[in-house]
Amino acid sequence: MTPLDPPGRTTRPVPATFLAGPPRAGARSAADEDGDGERRTDGADPAGADPAGADPAGADPGCADPGGPERADAVAAAAGPGGRAAVLRLPEAPLPPSEVDRLVGGQHHDPHALLGAHPVHGGTAIRVLRPFADRVVVETDQGPAELTHQQGGLFTGLVSGGSVPDYRLLVGYPGGEPLLQHDGYRCPPTLGELDLHLISEGRHEQLWQALGSHLRTVDGVAGTAFAVWAPNAVGVRLIGDFNHWNGTGHPMRSLGSSGVWELFVPGLGEGAAYKYEIHTRQGWVLDKADPLARAAQCPPGTASVVTASRHTWQDGEWMARRARAAHHRAPMSVYELHLASWRPDLTGYREIAEELPRYLKELNFTHVEFMPVMEHPFGGSWGYQVSGYYAPTARLGSPDDFRYLVDTLHQHGIGVIVDWVPAHFPKDGFALARFDGEPLYEPADPLRAEHPDWGTLEFDYGRTEVRNFLVANAVYWCEEFHIDGLRVDAVASMLYLDYSREGGAWTPNQYGGRENLDAAAFLQEMNATVYRRCPGVVTIAEESTAWDGVTRPTDGGGLGFGLKWNMGWMHDSLVYMSKEPVHRKYHHNEITFSMVYAYSENYVLPISHDEVVHGKQSLVSKMPGDWWQQRANHRAYLGFMWSHPGKQLLFMGQEFAQGAEWDHEQGPQWWVLDEQWPAHREHLGVRRLVRDLNRHYLDTPALWERDTTPDGFRWLDGGAAEDNLLSFVRYAADGSPLVAVCNFSPVVRHGHRVGLPALDGRDQLWEELLNTDDEAYGGSGIGNSHPVKAEPVARDGQPRSAELVLPPLATLWLRPA
Description:
- By secondary structure, the chain is of the alpha+beta class.
- Helix content is about 20%, strand content about 25%.
C-alpha cells in the first residue's frame, strides 16, 4: 500500500481483476464541512455518501452515457462469462511515481498533460484516473482492450498505431455493471485565448459566460464545463454529488498566468451539485462554492448547482420602452419589499408573480425594489451578506422562476429594481473569504479587509479581476434577468477608508487622504459599463455623506449614478415629524433644509426598511399624539413626501400604517386590513391615500418632470414656523403648476390666505386635487369642497392669493380648476 491508495486498493494488480471497496470514509457531501469550510478529518461518514453495501457503480454516474442499445451492445461485446471480459490487456504506459503522487494528491497543475490520450514512442498512451474502479477497458476501432492499474486509481495502456484513436471507456465497479464513458481529459480547454486575455485584463464584461459551470458540447460530446479563478491554488479538483464529493477522479487544469482552472466533464448535466476542492500553498484543502455559480442549493445547503435557462421572455414591449426612458424626467414611485416575507404564505417566485403585480397596479406604483435576491447563507441578514453573487436565492425557486417573476411584472408595466451589495461579503468558509487559501477577493491588508460594522470582509477594488467580478455581476443582473435598476448598498462604507474606524485602524491613500480611490474608480467603471450595455437601466446609490458628484456623469468626474437616496431629507424630516406639534416650530429648519441642496444630486426620497427596524418603530409609530393624530401625521407626511422634489420609495407595510416594526420572519401585518380588526377602516384609508397619491402623481407632470432642476420648484411660504405651515409650488415642463400646502399643526385654520401663481388667460380658479384629511382616508373631512378663486391680492411673492380652509395635520394639493 502507498499513501495514495484508498483503503481496500492494492498497488499493482498482477491478475486481470482489481477489486476496490466502496467510497472510502471521509468522502464528503455538501454539508460535510466544519464551520470554516476546511476538510473534515474525523473520518465520519458523510451525509451524502452511499451507505455500506450501496452499489459502487454510482461512484461516477455523471460521466456515464445515458444508456440504450449502444451501451448494451458495448457491454455485451466486452463482457464474458461472469461479467469479466476476455479481452486483450494493453501494455502499460506508466507515469513516474512523483507525477502520480501529485496527480492523485490533487496538486497537479496540468492533469490533462498526463491523462487522456497522448502520442508516445510506440503508439498512443491512454491514461485514466478512476478511483474505486476495479477495471477499465478502452474501446477503439481496433476493439476493446484492458488498461492496467498503476497506482491510486490510475489506469494506463499503450495503443499501437501512428495516430491518436477515437475511443471510449468501459469502467467497471465492484458489484455493478460497467459504465460506458467518454474521456473528458482528451478534450481541449473550453475557454479561448480571448476569454483568458479579457479575464487577466479585468475587462470581461460577460464573465459569467466564461467562468462557472456551463452545459457544453465538445467534439460532439455533451457535458458540463467548469472554470474557476484561483490563482494561488497549487491544485483544484471538482467535487459533487456525481462523485460522492471525492475529487480524486476530477482534477482540473490550470490555464497559465490567468489563474483560471478548467475541466470538462462528459455526460454531466443540469441539476448536479458541486464545489471546488482547493489545495492551498499552506497545505490546506478547502471546499468552495463556485463564485460564478448561477444556481445554488437552498440553505442550509452550500453547494453550487449546474443550471441552464429555458425561459422565453415576453417583455419585449417593456424593454423597448425602457430603452427610451429618461428617468430624471419620468415618474418613479417605488414600493420596497423583502420577497421572502412580503407574503409569507407565498412560498415561491411564481406564486408571488400571481399576486404582486396586481397589488402594485392597484396602488399605482411604477417600480418595485427587492431587497437582495442573491444567495445568502443567513436569512436574518435579509440578503445583505451575499455568498452567491450570480445566483438568485433558491429559497423561493429556480433562476428561471425569478425570471418569470420579473417578466410578469414587466408585462404589467412595473419596473424592477434590485438591491446590490458590492460593499462587503461574509466570512463563511465555503464562499469567497480566502478563496484559494490567501486573500483574493478581499485586500491583503487586514486593516482594509475587515468591515467593522458587520463582521464581514470588503472587496479589493484595486485588483482588476475582483473589479471585473463585480462589474460583470452588475451587467449580469441587467442582461440575464432584465433588471431595470440596481440600488447599490452601503456606498459610503466603500468610499471612505476610515468609515467606522478609529484613528490608527486605517491606512490613508497614496495622497494621505481618507478617500478610497480604488472604490471610486470601481463605481465609475460599473456605472459607465451598465449604462453603455443596458439602455434604460438606472443605478441608485445609498450614500449618506456629502461626497461630491455621486450622480454626476463619469466623464465629468462624478461617480456616474443615476439617482441617490436622500438620507439627509429622510433623517431631518422624520426628526421634525417625531416632535409634538407645539415643539415643531423649534425644528422648522429640519423640514425645509432639504431644499438647500435638493439639486446638488438627483435624489430618491426613501422611507426604507432601515427606518422601520431595530427599535426605530414603524412610520406611523414615529408620529406623536394619540392614534388619530398619529395616522393624521402619517398621512400628512406622505402627502408632503410625494410633492417634494425627488422620486419616492416606501417600504412594505407603511402603505397601510402598520403599527409594528418589520419582522423578517412574520412580514407585514396584513391582518389589520381584515374587517375583523377594530381599526381596519383606518388602515384601509391610509392605503387608499397611497393609491391616490400615486394616481395623481402619475397624472401630474409637475410632480416629476422637473425633479432635478430648480425651475421646477418655488417656495410660497417656507418660513411659517410658528404655525407649522409649509406651502410651495411645483411646475411641469410646460409651466403647469401644482400647489402643496402642509399644515403640521392639529389646529384647523379657516380663511388662511395662500399665494397662488397667476393663470394666464384662464379663470383664476383652483380646486383640491388631494386632501389627506379626506374621510375616505380616515380623516375628519375638513377642506375646500368647492373651487376657490384667486383674488388679485399679492401674497407669498405671487400676484394673486386665495383664502383656504386648512385641515388639521394634513397636506393639500391644489391645481387649476
